[in-house]
Structure formats: C-alpha cells, structure tokens
Sequence to fold (187 residues):
Amino acid sequence: MPNPWEFNEAATETDEEQRTLLQEGEEKAQRFFSGFIEFAFSGNILEIAFGLILATAFTGLTTSLVSDILLPPLSVILPLRRNMNEKFAVLRAGPNYNDEDGYNTLEQAQNDGAIVMAYGVFLNRVVNFLGIGLALYGLASLYQYLSHDPIIKHSVKCRYCKKGVGSKATRCVNCTSWLDGREERMR
Fold:
C-alpha cells in the first residue's frame, strides 16, 4: 500500500486531469444553467407564459358563460325539457332500457351500455368555441385600436392570381403584379 505522504508523480498527473475535467464540467454546467436562465427570463418567453395563463383563465370563464348563462335560457326558450348538455339520441339501447320511459339522463344511458349520440354536448362545445373566438377577436380589435399595432391583418384577394394579400400591400407576393392598378393603366 502506497504511503499517502510520499510524492507520487503519476498521482499528481491524475489529480490534475481530474481537476481539469471537473473544471470543464463545471464550466459547461454553468454555461448551460446561465443559458437556461437567459432563455427562461427573456421577454418573449415571459409573454408567452403570461398569455397561456391568461388564455386558460379566459377559457374557463367563457366555458362557464356558455354552459351556465347562455344555454339554460336557450333550453327554456326551445321546447327541450332539459339542459342542452343532457340532450342525446339513443342509437342502440342497453340491456336495462325501458321502452316506456327511456333514459332520463345521458349518464344513465352511458352507464347502461347504450350507444348514444350526445349532440347536446357537441352544441355546447360549438357555442363555447364561437364565444371564445368572438371574445378573442374583440380583445384583439381593442388592442389594435389602442396600440396601433396590427394583430389582425386584413387581406384582399389579388385580382390576377386570386390569393390573399395584405390590404396595405402595393404588390402581390404570389404573382408580383401591382395592386394599385398600374398594370391596367399601361395597357
């Protein structure tokens, strides 16, 4: 067994190699961590995170508006006799189906093993989608009005290639024709 107090040249080379490897690893880890911090706290990522959090809250609010406020009066106005979410059609009845009463709820039909078409849930989701879309369009229009930053880009069709082009463009990006009527005046 070697004496730890004796000078060993091979051991010092190994120690230096280990220190060099440790320093390189530490530098790489530090560079990786500082790069991650720079990425995570850059302006774009924070804006995206804030937007996603806001969109999640907004979606919950709109879903509640549609299912709790809009659809119940619609169920009363139309002769539906129940909430829109509970509207369904039985395609194939389950083993406990009663011909006189049928199923009272969608959950009861599904628990019995019936094959149902839950069109009420679908209509709820369609109205929810339209509500979210209209609300987001309204917010984007309000933002664009207040900041003059174009979120909503209006487009027109090119009269030559019939593809969409920005309304402020002077030339078509697809066929390179002039959109201000220059080509018509040359003829």
Summary: The helical segments are 9-40, 43-77, 106-111, 119-147, 182-186. The chain has five helices and four strands. The radius of gyration is 33 Å. The first strand starts at residue 89 and ends at 92.
